[in-house]
Design a protein that fits this description.
By secondary structure, the chain is mainly beta. It has one domain: E3 ubiquitin-protein ligase SopA (Pectate Lyase C-like, 3 Solenoid). The strands form 4 sheets. Strands 1, 2, 3, 6, 9, 11, 12, 13, 14 and 15 form a 10-stranded parallel beta sheet that branches. It has a 3-stranded parallel beta sheet with strand order 4-7-10, with no helix packed on it. Strands 5-8 form a two-stranded parallel ribbon. It contains 1 helix and 17 strands. InterPro entries: 5peptide_repeat (IPR001646), PA_immunity-related (IPR052949). It comes from Levilactobacillus angrenensis. This is Pentapeptide repeat-containing protein.
């Protein structure tokens, strides 16, 4: 998985609010810090080769949001609607995305590290080489989505819903959950630890292991 390609030595400090004033709604090679953006609506905003630190987005609606080669650090993106989002080589570090919608999104080479994605929606999305590391994914919704070469490492997946999403060739063995919503055929070829396998045996076969 490739890291975001950012010319950090030449980034220009910039306010996110200027994106609404730009004709093409583009912010490129800029550094944004410590702003709060609330209930803003934007059509097809683009962010490229930039960093966002300590930014707060609440209840924003960004249609066809595109982000490339960008790092979000200590950011809050809560209850936002990013339906149809496109993320390519993007990294989220210690970010909160609780209740945010990324339905119908396309994510490739994206990393979430130490993030809270509780109640986040990835329904009917395409996730390719997406890594979730030490993150909270409780009650996450990922229904009828396509996952390819994704990583789930030391995450809390309790009550996450992967209904009708194939987990084949994926590894959830280092993650934790008491309840996981999955479709029986969709867990074939997925790697689980012994405790998780016992839960699935009870769920689908009514078998209780001694």
């Amino acid at each position: 998985m490739n890291a975001p390609k950012i010319p950090t030595e030449t980034l220009i400090p910039q306010s996110f609010s200027t994106i609404a004033q730009a004709e093409d709604h583009l912010l490129a090679q800029v550094a944004m810090k410590q702003e709060t953006i609330t209930a803003q609506r934007l059509e097809h905003p683009l962010i490229d080769q930039s960093t966002l630190t300590g930014m707060v987005f609440r209840g924003d609606v960004f249609s066809r949001f595109e982000v490339t080669d960008t790092i979000f650090h200590n950011c809050t993106l809560v209850n936002c609607d990013f339906d149809g989002i496109s993320l390519f080589r993007v990294r989220f570090e210690n970010c909160k995305l609780v209740g945010t919608t990324l339905d119908h999104g396309t994510l490739k080479e994206v990393t979430f590290v130490d993030c809270d994605l509780s109640l986040t929606n990835f329904n009917e999305a395409k996730l390719t080489q997406v890594a979730f590391q030490r993150s909270k994914l409780t009650e996450l919704n990922c229904l009828e989505s396509t996952l390819k070469q994704c990583q789930f490492s030391d995450c809390n997946l309790d009550q996450a819903d992967f209904s009708a999403t194939s987990l084949k060739h994926h590894d959830l063995s280092t993650c934790r959950f008491d309840t996981l919503r999955v479709t029986d055929w969709a867990v074939r070829g997925c790697r689980f630890n012994d405790t998780q396998a016992a839960y699935l045996a009870r769920l689908f076969l009514g078998i209780t292991l001694a």
